What does this fold into?
Amino acid sequence: MRIVTTIADVRTAVRDAKSAGRAVSFVPTMGALHGGHASLLHRARKEGSFVVASIFVNPLQFNDPNDLAAYPRTAEADEALCKSAGVDLVWRPTAETIYPADFDTRVEPGKLAAGLEGLHRPGHFGGMATVVLKLLNVVTPDVAFFGLKDFQQFAIVRRMVRDLDVPVKIVGCPTVREEDGLAMSSRNAKLSPESRMLAAHLSRVIHAAARAMRSGERADRARDLAFSDLSSQSAIEIEYLEVVDRDSLLPVVDEPTANAVVLVAAVVGGIRLIDNVEVVPRDKDSS
It folds into this structure.
């Protein structure tokens, strides 16, 4: 496994791999890697013979400087996980490499970024889309993998790639969960033991809503019952709990449930968590 920092080194390594007839798989990350990231890297290993992972804490995604400063940096552990997952090339660019002093171009996502996380984290998706496009342009992978824990992010990246004719296949990979159902996240380590137990309730509630819809319950009724359940927990501060169409991200009321996703964002013990579940899971591959 090689670790590089420059754009030139990435392009040279990828060019050599493609010249040798190897397909290139890419997993962009912000570090603080955990089992969810490992699942993406293993999937990339299966799909392509040359695996690239980027580790870059993107400042444009943070609307709060304190959150950026507090984001965990675990370089040694991240590199060890990448090596064990069979990654060929780890790219660790600096902020100056990605955003030179005269950098003045941004990607502005459209309607898909307007609600949900977009309402609570102004500018987040613009920063995310900007860095993802730049990373894709440097790595030029055949296929790139994104976790579905942030379903809205996946939907925005998929739409951006389609709308801007970026020649890459985008694949969404299922959320990896702890034994009690809590979605794996770098934020989980910040939860107190009491909050950790309560956080798992987010997963139970949205899965219950999805089961209810599969059994014929209206989406709005299932959503209201789930909201009521979480609201009964005084230590959980709900930011949103919605049932939306997985392509448009618009609210679903009583339409057929096959394309619906239940999404939640909440603060538990001072830690903000997100999760989602598709009512009827399907193959996530998208070109």
About this structure: The first strand starts at residue 2 and ends at 4. The chain has two domains: 2-173, 186-286. The domain at 186-286 is CATH 3.30.1300.10 (Pantoate--beta-alanine Ligase; Chain: A,domain 2). The mean pLDDT is 94.
